[in-house]
Amino acid sequence: MPKLHELRHAKSVLIAEAKALRVKEEGLPADQAPEQSDVDRLTQIRSEVDVLSASIDRLDAITQLEADDAQLVDPDAMPGSEPASEEERTMRNLQLRRFTGHGSGEPAIPAAQKGFKAARFMVGLWHAKHGNMTNAAALIERRFGDKEVAKALNTVGVATGGALIPQNFIPDLIELLRAATVVRDSEPMIIPMPGGNATIPRLAAGATAGYQGELDDIGISQQTFDDLQLNAKKLTAMVPVSNDLIRHAPIGVEAIIRDDLIQTLARREDIAFLLGDGSGNSPIGLLNQCSASNKLNAIAFPAPTGNGAADNAAMVAVVSSVLQDMMLVLEQGFSRMVRPRWIFPPAVHAFLLTLRDGVGNYVFKDEIASGTLMGVPFKRTAQLPTNINTAAAGAAANNNGSYLYLVDFADVVIGETYNILVDASDVASYTDGSGKSVSGFQRDQTVFRVISEHDLALRHQASVVIATLPGWSPAGYTPYGGSAFYVQAPSGDGSAAPSTFGLPPTGSANPGNSAAAVPGGTLPGRP
Length: 527
Fold this sequence. Notes:
- This protein is an alpha+beta fold.
- Helix content is 36%, strand content 19%.
- It has two domains: 1-69; 111-201 and 226-484, phage-related protein like fold, CATH 3.90.1690.
- The chain is built from 13 helices and 16 strands.
- The termini are far apart.
């Protein structure tokens, strides 16, 4: 008989398929009926979902009876655990009251605790690998007061490839992922991908109309459609966590695991969605889906004349021209301008914030403080490079260029499987930021492997305009190549790392340091 989590997963896949059929039908012209095969499939899905729902309700009732009859295992009495101090027991009781609350209904999850359930599920998975799922569930309920995660652990099955984070824990992770990225946070259309793929019809060419004489035949034309294909691309991440942290599961451990998980996935995903070229089985990003005619090269600023007022006025003229041209290109490409957004690196943000006109007034400062540029909201990310070569062909390199995106995100589609698979190992090795192989076993760490699947596509290629900007950065700024994270060499002293470091480690890829990241960089005072 299928396990409860397998039935729930099968139901979620069917519902996602039904949603995809709905999206497909909504994209059809008003006078075009859906294909009969789609109608038949929808009827079949409804029947299968009804059967699965009945099975799930039946097993849920049995599971609840078992849970009500079960005796909690004291985590302090589990083999290998240390007796809890009075202070720790007090903290557990506080945590228990916080999550159980009083009165009827489930308490709303505070914003600061979103994603905690997924992190606790991962902690429970670790304990299950070192004991059994029942004891792991009991520990999670006792230590965090979270009956929902404990119940999920009691009903989930751990296969060779890991365990699926329960579907009801994923929305909080997706919400946090959205806040940590510029692409998701710009409100693209997000659709489910049942089975790892989805097809959406899009308008390739519209019908035509024309004037005619009294007895002339009316010209016949019709709209042309093609398909937008989305195929799941597998994003994998390794999240190492100290075993001391997991073993003792102090209050706050879930925040550490959650934040590491979100940052690891968000940064890599954003790079792919912005700059990806499709290599290495990654999504093709906006830069490489943008049509060639919508990629603009901004003119360089005039050489300084020594007259500050005249030089400022000349720079303002160039900047205004570029911004207006980009907006015109987007609108003339018949973009609907439903959810337009600018995206640029912090260097461009700082440049625009301090740009003055010919009489010394700030040009964009007040508007940027309100979150818009030319009336359009903007996002900034340090993952976009600021060292693009803007020199003419054959000329000496001039690595001072930055990308400026203007995108109508109503035409950007992200396909999401809504499945996140996790597994844990305390004997695995991983590669750190400097390219060095690190043994989790030797460092007494557990390595969580996280897998999510998604893809990105454009419904209308003309809804993206990208300009390359030469020299749009504050005076004295050193360009850099963009980075997914700050590269810091790991301490050779294990977990007993010094609390302060003074100077940054060599080989850092922080903004303003143009040096390439050096594998095995050093910390001050260390060889």
